[in-house]
Specification:
Helices cover 49% and strands 12% of the residues. By secondary structure, the protein is α/β, with parallel strands linked by helices. The mean pLDDT is 88.
């Protein structure tokens, strides 16, 4: 989300008032009857200051896209990171300030024109006082939008047309190694709320289809019962993207987690992503001599692949699976307007 540079109230007022002074100085050098000149100078000062401040506020409001028009993933992302309601409230406050300053521009422009020239400076000072008061009332909203700009600047770039696969599993089971093997390149690392390392996004093309593979360290590698509400919301955001999940077991248990713990995590993930197909990859098979003990953790032979990611063993089979994955249609259903 591109949020423009957000000024402080002081910067906003300084820009408006200094531009107003420049415009007033231009009038000062013109040949105008004395009884009109003072009024013209101060009217121009007030109107220019209001217009400059309004233009800046409008540029911020216009630059931030309508949150409801964004993809649901980004809506959730913004909500998790900074809060959608807070964002709307702050933009609403800027809109309010824009409206009030428009009124002040008209009110004080008319007042200066109607009053004697000797009162023009006094009325201009009143106008500046009220303009300043309005701008300082939105200080917390400008501060919030600056905070949002900093926190949303590394929002991951998602290809919503690509078939998207999410890799899940405990730490050190070989997720990143597999991601590199499938995509054949170092993945792009993007910040994601509440992960320690950020999500990794890899892109590849299989049979002219764009494939996007997302590894989420710190999110899908801890038991759901240990996750807080914010982490759960982050998982829901990923639910908008996944067309399939590759769940990686470390069959050797050298990652430090027993197969039973890994299996329990799998069951929790299957519950969260109930409508999304899951494939089971048993990794580090090069370290296994007798695979019989794995049988109790194999729920579906047809969806189980035995691999050694570090050697590239089994990657061709994974690519076959990826080729078979269909993109999930998430087009919202239209409301039925008919009544029965």
């Amino acid at each position: 989300m591109m949020i423009p540079t957000i000024p402080t109230p002081e910067e906003l007022l300084d820009k408006g008032f200094s531009r107003g002074k420049k415009q007033a100085d231009l009038i000062r050098s013109q040949k105008i009857p004395k009884h009109l000149k003072g009024k013209r100078i101060e009217e121009r000062r007030v109107i220019t200051s209001c217009q400059v401040i309004k233009d800046k506020l409008k540029s911020i409001i216009d630059a931030v896209p309508e949150i409801e028009e964004l993809h649901p993933f980004y809506q959730d992302y913004i909500d998790i990171t900074v809060g959608v309601d807070d964002m709307k409230q702050s933009l609403g406050a800027l809109n309010w300030a824009y409206g009030i300053i428009t009124q002040l521009e008209k009110e004080y422009g008319a007042k200066i024109r109607k009053n004697p020239s000797e009162r023009a400076t006094e009325i201009q000072k009143q106008a500046y006082g009220r303009i300043s008061s309005v701008v300082y009332k939105i200080k917390k909203d400008l501060d919030f939008l600056d905070f949002a700009k900093q926190n949303l600047r590394n929002m991951p770039t998602i290809d919503f047309d690509a078939t998207t696969i999410v890799i899940a599993g405990f730490p050190n089971v070989g997720k990143s190694t597999l991601l590199r093997q499938i995509t054949g390149a170092d993945p792009q690392v993007a910040n994601y709320p509440f992960t320690t390392k950020g999500i990794q996004i890899g892109h590849t093309e299989i049979h002219w289809r764009s494939i996007q593979i997302i590894d989420t360290p710190g999110l899908l590698d801890r038991p759901v019962l240990e996750m807080n509400d914010i982490e759960m919301n982050a998982i829901v955001a990923l639910e908008h993207l996944a067309d399939a999940i590759l769940f990686i077991f470390d069959a050797s248990e050298t990652c430090g987690f027993h197969l039973e713990n890994q299996y329990n995590l799998l069951k929790q993930i299957e519950k969260i992503f109930a409508d999304i197909p899951v494939y089971y990859l048993f990794n580090k098979m090069d370290l296994i001599e007798d695979r019989e003990y794995l049988n109790e953790y194999i729920d579906d032979e047809d969806k189980s692949i035995f691999i050694s990611a570090i050697d590239g063993e089994g990657v061709d089979e994974i690519n076959k699976v990826i080729r078979s994955i269909k993109k999930i249609d998430r087009t919202p259903e239209e409301d039925d307007d008919e009544y029965y």
